[in-house]
Every structure is written in structure tokens, then in C-alpha cells.
Amino acid sequence: MTTPAIVGFSGSYNSPSRTRILIEEIVGRAARRYDKTSEILDVGQFIPHLGAAVRLSDLNQTARRLVDRLLEAEALVIASPVYKGSYTGLFKHLIDLLEPTAFSGMPVLLAATGGGDRHALVIEHQLRPLFGFFEARTLATGIYASERDFADPISISPALAERLDRAIGQFAPYLEPRISKRVVHASQSAPSERCGEPSACALLAPSSSRQVGVRDG
């Protein structure tokens, strides 16, 4: 099965949840904007085997396949609810099982949900340093959403939607197709392009001080 291009990973133990709503919005908008396939995973899908694992090989085959989908994605959206001032414990436990280069060079949009504004810096103080260790390319704009950012239990506010679109736009250098342009230097162009006629090139060619039949003297 082909790995979706954009994979979201929620650190929430509950589904449905505000974190799940947020990550569904981000992943869905990003997939539509860049015409990519997508998938969302929850830390709950790794329970009950995750808690007992001390290395990646301790996970069962189903959990290992889910990890592979995270590692093989073109881009990640990571979101966690704030528990006691940080991301959830099982979310961090799964990340701890991965190699330090697991997310190297991968674009990652960071997001979090919390009950109020006092947790708003969790992205900068917790999530960004974590993925910086893994050498991920975290997008400049992180998304923190509190209770007031949800218009109702199943949708987000217009203000939050605007912030999402701004952050998703920062995926562009990684997900938009690039047009490769070959630059041909004058020194690499054909003689007729530089001189017009082959005879003209002969006139422009540097002469040698040593000619046949001419002696130095």
C-alpha cells in the first residue's frame, strides 16, 4: 500500500477530541491545497503494546507498519493536547523509540490544543525543540488552539481557519512541484550560437605564437 504524502499524528488518547478535529482540518486543507493523499494516525492505535515497548522492535507488526507510514511521509502534521504543561506521555514514548535521524529533512507542521492561553508556548518550548533534535524542518508558524477556537464541538472558528491556511502555505517549498530550468552558459553554447558562422569563430580563435614554418628568432 502506498504511503500517503501527508500524514497527521495526534497525541490524544481520545477520539473524537479537539486535537483530532484540529489535525483533521490541517491535514484535509493541506491535502486539498497541494493535491496530495493523506492519512491521520492516533497514539491510541498503538495501545496497548506501546506502553510495554522499550525498543521499536517490541511493537507488533500493526504498530510497526503505522510507524513506517510516519517515517515515509513527504510531510507531517503533529498535534498533541497539553497534559501537565507538555505533550502526552505515550506520544513522547513513541517518539523516544525512533532513531535520531528518523525525521531528518522532513517538513513538519506543529500544533497543540489546550484549555487556555497559558499553554500557548508549548509549541516553542516543547514540540519545536523535540523535532529540532530529529533535524526536522519545522514550519515557522505553529498552531495552538484553545477552547474558544472551536466554534462548536465539531468545527473551528474563522480566526483559527485563517491561521491554519497561513501555516499550511509554508509547506509550499516542499510539496509544490518544481520546474527545473537548465541554464546554458555562453561558454557552453554551440559555435554557431556564439559567432554566427564557423568562419567567424575561426577569426575569433586565439592565434598561437608558434606557427608551422615560422621559426623563433
Structure description:
- The chain is 36% helix and 13% strand.
- By secondary structure, the chain is of the alpha/beta class.
- It has a single domain, classed as Rossmann fold (3-Layer(aba) Sandwich).
- Strands 1, 2, 3, 4, 5 and 6 form a six-stranded parallel sheet that branches.
- α1 packs across α6.
- The model is unreliable at 180-217 (pLDDT under 50).
Give me the strand/helix succession.
EHEHHEHEHEEHHHH
How does the major sheet shape up?
6 strands, parallel
Helix content: 25-40%
Overall shape? globular
Overall CATH class:
Alpha Beta
- What class do helices, strands and sheet pairing give? alpha/beta
Oligomer state of the chains in this structure: single chain
The CATH architecture comes to 3-Layer(aba) Sandwich
Contiguous uncertain segments of 5+ residues: 180-217
Rg, nearest Å = 27 Å
- How many DSSP-defined strands? 6
**What is the mean pLDDT?**
84
Number of helices: 9
Could you say what the CATH topology is called?
A: Rossmann fold
Number of domains: 1
* CATH superfamily grouping: Flavodoxin domain
**Residues in β-strands, percent:** 5-15%
Distance between the termini: 80 Å
List keywords for this structure.
single chain, 217 residues, alpha/beta, 6-stranded parallel beta sheet, 9 helices, 13% strand, disordered C terminus
